[in-house]
Write a structure and sequence with these properties.
By secondary structure, the chain is an alpha/beta fold. It has one domain: NAD(P)-binding Rossmann-like Domain (Rossmann fold). The strands form two sheets. Strands 3-4-5-6 form a four-stranded parallel β-sheet, sandwiched between helices. Strands 1-2 form a two-stranded parallel sheet. α1 runs parallel beside α2. The longest helix has 29 residues. The chain starts with 6 loop residues before the first helix and ends in a 7-residue tail after the last strand. The relative contact order is 0.14.
């Protein structure tokens, strides 16, 4: 899975490991966090390996896909959770165009390339198939005002539309679904202003922030045989959106 060093990616990896998965973990700029996650997965008596790759680079994406496939002679579940962080850290002051380019390369192009590469491999093998899970955004289709809303709507909307189309291409051997998280308390949420803290809880019918574990449980369900008749769908994980 990609994006294993992030809050949502880490939670999904741990949940899948608890369900019995052995996992290829992607890391890049925060490689030590991916390595720590591998240690935590080993503590669950499951196997994990960390592969480093700059997913903004097309050649690196191809090398990562090949190495991941070779680790256990195939992949049953692909989770594309990698995303460029343009809201915190060094990227926070970047101009709109630079942020959008970073998001496009990592969130969109990496998701497309890895899904097509590994999805075709899953489709072509006999008797196994596979599952692909991508990450969208619950407000991509309705829109949200502001620079961040515009960027993420364009980027995550592309991932959601692509996931629906890829499900058509890879059926019936491979199921493709997309998770669309709402207000999830990741690193940005923990440091958000009072305005965003209030808005996040107000816009959820559940009256709370979501957690990475909420997304992880939904991911584990969609990856499981229990969801065998679910493909081409975008599942909002947002506590129920409250329209204002």
């Amino acid at each position: 899975m990609t994006g294993a060093s992030g809050g949502i990616g880490r939670a999904i990896a741990l949940e899948l490991a608890r369900q019995g998965a052995e996992i290829v973990l992607h890391g890049h700029r925060r490689l030590p966090l991916a390595e720590k996650l591998a240690t935590d997965i080993h503590a669950l008596v499951r196997q994990a390996v960390v592969l480093s790759a700059d997913l903004a680079n097309a050649a690196a994406r191809t090398e990562f896909a090949t190495a991941a496939w070779r680790w256990r002679s195939g992949i049953d579940i692909l989770v594309n959770a990698a995303g460029a962080d343009v809201l915190t850290g060094d990227a926070a002051p970047w101009p709109f165009d630079r942020k959008l380019q970073a998001l496009w390369e990592v969130d969109v192009l990496a998701t497309l390339d890895l899904s097509r590469n590994l999805g075709q491999r899953m489709q072509e093998r006999t008797g196994r198939g596979g599952v692909i899970l991508n990450i969208g955004w619950d407000q991509a289709e309705q829109g949200m005002a502001g620079d961040s809303g515009e960027m993420f709507a364009a980027v995550k909307g592309a991932v959601m539309a692509f996931s629906r189309s890829l499900a058509q291409s890879l059926a019936p051997q491979v199921r493709v679904n997309c998770l669309a998280p709402g207000w999830i308390r990741t690193a940005w949420g923990e440091g958000a202003s009072d305005y965003w803290q209030a808005r996040a809880t107000r816009q959820a019918l559940a009256d709370r922030w979501g957690t990475p574990e909420d997304v992880a449980r939904a991911a584990a369900f969609l990856a499981s045989p229990a969801a065998d008749f679910i493909t081409g769908q975008v599942l909002n994980v947002n506590g129920g959106f409250r329209y204002e």
